[in-house]
Amino acid sequence: MEKEEKLDYWRKNVRLIRWLLVVWFVVSLGAGILFVKPLNTFSIGNLPFGFWMAQQGSIFVFVVMIYVYAKMMDKIDRDHHADK
Amino acid sequence: MSVENWTYTFVTLTFMIYLYIGWRARVKESSGFYVAGQGVPAIANGAATAADWMSAASFISMAGLISFMGYDGSIYLMGWTGGYVLLALLLAPYLRKFGQYTVPDFVGTRYYSNTARIIAVICAIFVSITYVAGQMRGVGIVFSRFLEVDIAQGVMIGMVIVGFFAVLGGMKGITWTQVAQYFVLIIAFLIPSVALSLKLTGNPIPQIGLVTSDIMPKLNQIQVDLGFAEYTQPFRDKSMLDILFITIALMVGTAGLPHVIVRFYTVRNVRAARYSAFWALLFIAILYTTAPALATFARYNLVESLHGKSMEEIHAMDWAVKWEETKLLQFDDKNGNGVLELTPEAESSEIIIDRDIIVLSTPEVAQLSPWVIALVAAGGLAAALSTAAGLLLVISSSIAHDIYFRLINPHADEKRRVMVGRIMVIVAVVVAGYFGVNPPGFVAQVVAFAFGLAAASFFPVILLGIFDKKANREGAIAGMIVGLSFTLFYIAGTKAHLIFGAEEAWFGNWCFGISAEGIGTVGMLLNFAVALVVSRLTPPPPQEVMDILDELRMPDHVGPAVILDESTE
Fold first, then answer.
1. A58: in domain
2. Contact B553 A10 (CB under 8 A)
3. pLDDT the model gives residue B227
4. What ipTM score was computed for the predicted complex, to two decimals?
5. Number of domains chain A is built from
6. CA distance B345 to B175
């Protein structure tokens, strides 16, 4: 890989990480703590939504996020022929 | 068969399995001993990481804690899972690419400094010892509760079992026993939870039953009727800021715990490290999303079955009598009106419920067969032993690899390195056992140290080591020292009465009202700030380190992995 391409690969990686960290922040620290009171005015089934995000929802999203990261990185690796 | 016989059978059976696996996985080479030969499949490493991570506390105490804290218990749920996102995105793939054996290896090489390496070694040992003492204690408690074995004897049995497969198989032995232990602990946790969910909500899946049934509205109503806050009400006993800081400290601390990080060194390549983080969190999430549902059901069920009953009615329930004997449940009709009442104040409450009972009593409360109770005992032991094993290996490798091999005798041959590793495991087992029998201070408080210190030391230096090319030796050392000293000072000061037996705490939560559990977040921020500034005022890292860094950022095939010790590779 040339220097330029290496830099490009790294930039794509960092951009992906940045977006995922935004999601991470919003679903846990955001929905589960900072905005839990306003979100509790909504409900999911018989549970206040903010409470559900703090004890259930955020964890589901975390699992999906790590999977998405691994999948997206596979694609970036392939595009840069770095998967062999 | 009686509960006790079932328990003996299950515990013996699972221990035989662990010993057999430990024997099969015995190793001779140092790479097998320290990083399982770097050939563990992603999914197996995920299960091993989950078992490594979920301790006696996660298994036995967490659901109980949540059930008493209500919403505020979310700090553990989000804190101990959210850290895996940081680990998967920011640390694991790069540390795997780096490929050496320990966290201090990375710190020492990336910051071209033995001082930084030694600080990292001290942190790793301190964090792991505080943590392992709690696990050994957990083993002792399970033995004493289920088998009426003395706590000290329980700890001894645990030490022998862990010692056996860790000494013989090192990381390889630990990895494969942890995979087995994961399945034991998750089955043991799920069977009673599913049964209780089915009984109370009609839905076998606790996560769904929690949402669709009317248990939560009913529980909230009961709480209010008895004078408690609603179960779902946020910030009952802690401020929003404190909850936020504690959650961040637990997340960052999780990502910085050496025994978790080191698991990602054992997989085949960078890609496997990414997927293995996914499997790990998936396996962990199965327990971590069940626990809050169990916490809700169990609280509802306990209050419903105990509150407002007469002593005769309570003594008609076998499980209540049994747990009363262990003092985990206590009844006392203080006002003598013939009815036992649960109230928010400890002085007037006539029913005292220990938090550990939530998980331990579930099988009996849900009227399951005796073998399920025995399975829960085996599950608690699996959780404690798997975590203890991972921690013991970190303590052993910190001394045998980071100090002995890297600093004292770099020319040691394979045989000698593995032998020193084995001896250090034995030393660590004995130290852990000692602290298990004579717990230092108040164990639960000491765990706040482990997370706070990991958050304030490892996480910032590893993160900057990967993502900031300007981060240098001076910055890393200054950052670690400032972050650590501040965190240590604050925890010690606010907990002086619990840790040193002082008359009272030296000072209150003067830092914006943040408690000792959350102060690691401030320590981490200080570490980042100092490291960033100092790195920019002092000379940049040498070219070799820049080259390593370029290499670290690329996936596998581009160029060789970093080779440090040619003599042994």
1. yes
2. yes
3. 87
4. 0.95
5. 1
6. 46
